[in-house]
Design brief:
Order of helices and strands: HHEEEEEEEHEEEEEEEEEHEEHEEHHHH
Helix content: 40-55%
Number of strands: 20
Largest sheet: 5 strands, antiparallel
Shape: elongated
Number of domains: 3
Distance between the termini: 21 Å
Strand order of the largest sheet: 1-16-3-12-13
Structural class: alpha+beta
Low-confidence stretches: 1-8
Length: 471
C-alpha cells in the first residue's frame, strides 16, 4: 500500500495554506471596517474645513459690525508731491486749502578748520538743546545738557564726533575734510525752533594751539558758523496761519496728518471723502466667505446622476441642516433703521445658492453709512435686535464652539472612528487566536497521520516477511 508524503508534512496536506485561508476568512470583516474608518476620516477632514470656513464667515460678520466699517474715508491732495495727507477712519468728509510758506528745518553748524587728524587740547564740550528765537539761547529745561570730555593730544575730531553720536545729546556729528583741513559738522536730530543747540567749550590749556574753543557755537561771532537755523514750519489752512516743529503736521485737524514736502506756489486742495471702495471690499469679503462655505456644502452633499458619484456628505443630515441654517441666517432682520435686511442694500442669494451684489443698490446704500452701521452693528440686550454682523458672528461661534453643531459632529465622527478601530483590533485578535487554534489542530492531525503511516509501514513489512516464510 502506497503512502502520501510531502517534505515537512506527514499528511501530505498544505496545512499552512489551509490555515492561511481560514485566517483570511476570520479577517474578512476588516475590509468593511477599514472602509468605514476611511469614510469617517474623509468626513472628519471635510468638517474641519467647514469649521474653518464658518469661522471665517463669522469673522467677516464681525468686521461688518466694527464701528468704523462704514466710516472708511480717503484723503486726497491736489499736489501730493508738495503736500501729502493721510486720514483716520471715521473722520468726517471735508475739504481744505493749504499753503506752505516755510518748511521746518534742523539747526546745522560748522566748526572752525583744524589740521586734519590732529589731536585736540584737553577740556570739555557742553551741548545744550533750546531755542535761539529771541536772538539769545534759551535752554530747554526738560533736556539735560550733555558733557563731552576730550583728552589732550589723543582725541581727534573723529573721536569727538563719535563721542557726540554715542552720547544721545540730541545732535549728530560728522567730520568734513577738504584741502584746508577738517571741520566738525553738527546737526539737530529733530527739526523745529525748540530743538536748536549751543556748544560751550572749556579748555584745560587755553592758548596751546589746540583750543577746543574752535568747536564752540554760542551764537553770532562764535568760532563755529551757523549754516542753517532750526525753524518751525509755517503754513496756512483755509487762510489760518499755523506753525509746526515738524514737517509732519498731526492733530492740527482731528484725524488728518499733513506731510509738508515743498513750499507752495499755489494753494493745495485737500479733500476727505467717503471711501466707497474700501467699504465695498469689506462687503465683498463677507460675500466671498458665505459663498466659500456654501460651495463646499453643496459639492460634498450632492449626487451626480451622470457619474453616479455621491459627495462625501451626501445624505449627511448635519451637513444638510447646516446648509439650511446658514441660508436662513442670511434672511435675518435688524429693525430700527432704514435698512433691515441684506436684500435692502443689494446683497442677494440667487437660485443657485450663490450670494451676489447688486452694485447699483449697494452704491446707493453706501451714501448712507450711518444706516449701514445700524444694519450690521446695532447693539441691544435683545439678541434678535442686534445688527446682522453681530448676529452672524455669534451664530458662527455657536456652530464651532463646544456643544455646537460642528463641534458635536466632529466629536461623533472621532468617536465612531475610535469604536471601529477597536472592532478592528478585536477582529485581528480573534484571527490571531484562530490561527493558533487551527495550527494546533492540523499539527495534531498531522502527527496522528504520521503515526498511522508508521504503523502501516510496519504491518506491510510484517506481511511481506510472513508471505516469504510461508511460501
Amino acid at each position: 500500500m502506497a503512502t502520501i508524503t510531502s517534505p515537512g508534512m506527514a499528511s501530505g496536506l498544505p496545512i499552512k495554506e489551509m490555515v492561511a485561508q481560514l485566517v483570511a476568512l476570520e479577517r474578512a470583516p476588516l475590509t468593511g471596517l477599514q472602509t468605514q474608518v476611511t469614510k469617517a476620516q474623509s468626513k472628519l477632514s471635510i468638517y474641519g474645513t467647514i469649521s474653518s470656513l464658518v469661522t471665517t464667515l463669522g469673522d467677516a460678520g464681525a468686521k461688518l459690525a466694527e464701528a468704523n466699517a462704514f466710516k472708511a474715508v480717503k484723503a486726497t491732495s491736489s499736489l501730493p508731491d508738495v503736500v501729502g495727507v493721510t486720514v483716520k477712519a471715521g473722520t468726517p468728509p471735508t475739504g481744505f486749502s493749504l499753503e506752505v510758506q516755510r518748511l521746518a528745518t534742523a539747526q546745522n553748524t560748522s566748526s572752525a578748520v583744524v589740521p586734519a587728524g590732529s589731536g585736540m587740547g584737553a577740556g570739555t564740550l557742553t551741548i545744550s538743546l533750546g531755542n535761539w528765537g529771541s536772538g539769545s539761547f534759551v535752554a530747554n529745561a526738560e533736556e539735560e545738557p550733555v558733557l563731552i570730555t576730550v583728552e589732550e593730544g589723543k582725541d581727534t575730531l573723529k573721536d569727538i564726533a563719535q563721542q557726540i553720536n554715542d552720547s544721545d545729546a540730541g545732535v549728530t556729528a560728522t567730520v568734513l575734510k577738504d584741502a584746508n583741513g577738517e571741520r566738525l559738522l553738527l546737526r539737530s536730530k529733530s527739526t523745529g525752533a525748540e530743538m536748536g543747540f549751543q556748544v560751550e567749550a572749556t579748555d584745560a590749556d587755553a592758548g596751546d594751539g589746540k583750543d577746543l574753543g574752535r568747536l564752540a557755537y554760542m551764537g553770532a561771532g562764535s568760532p563755529s558758523t551757523l549754516t542753517q537755523a532750526g525753524l518751525n514750519a509755517q503754513a496756512t489752512i483755509n487762510g489760518v496761519a499755523i506753525e509746526s516743529a515738524s514737517n509732519t503736521v498731526a492733530d492740527t485737524i482731528d484725524g488728518l496728518t499733513f506731510e509738508l514736502k515743498q513750499l507752495t506756489t499755489t494753494p493745495v486742495n485737500v479733500t476727505v471723502a467717503n471711501d466707497k471702495d474700501a467699504m465695498k471690499k469689506t462687503v465683498q469679503g463677507f460675500v466671498d466667505a458665505y459663498n466659500a462655505v456654501m460651495d463646499l456644502l453643496a459639492t460634498t452633499t450632492k449626487y451626480d446622476p451622470e457619474t453616479k458619484v455621491a459627495g462625501s456628505l451626501q445624505g449627511d443630515s448635519t451637513a444638510t441642516g447646516l446648509r439650511n441654517a446658514i441660508r436662513g441666517m442670511m434672511r435675518s432682520s435688524t429693525p430700527g433703521g432704514e435698512f433691515t435686511q441684506l436684500l435692502d442694500i443689494g446683497i442677494e442669494i440667487k437660485s443657485d445658492g450663490k450670494m451676489s451684489i447688486n452694485s447699483t443698490k449697494l452704491d446707493a446704500a453706501l451714501d448712507k453709512p450711518a444706516e449701514l452701521g445700524k444694519l450690521f452693528g446695532a447693539t441691544s440686550d435683545d439678541p434678535t435686535q442686534r445688527g446682522f454682523g453681530l448676529k452672524l458672528d455669534a451664530f458662527a461661534d455657536g456652530l464651532v464652539e463646544s456643544g455646537g453643531t460642528l463641534s458635536n459632529r466632529t466629536e461623533s465622527l472621532n468617536a465612531s472612528i475610535k469604536r471601529t478601530n477597536k472592532e478592528m483590533d478585536k477582529v485581528v485578535d480573534r484571527a490571531a487566536r484562530a490561527e493558533t487554534r487551527y495550527l494546533a489542530y492540523y499539527n495534531a492531525m498531522d502527527a496522528n497521520v504520521a503515526r498511522l503511516n508508521s504503523l502501516n509501514a510496519y504491518i506491510t513489512q510484517q506481511i511481506t516477511m510472513w508471505n516469504k516464510n510461508t511460501g
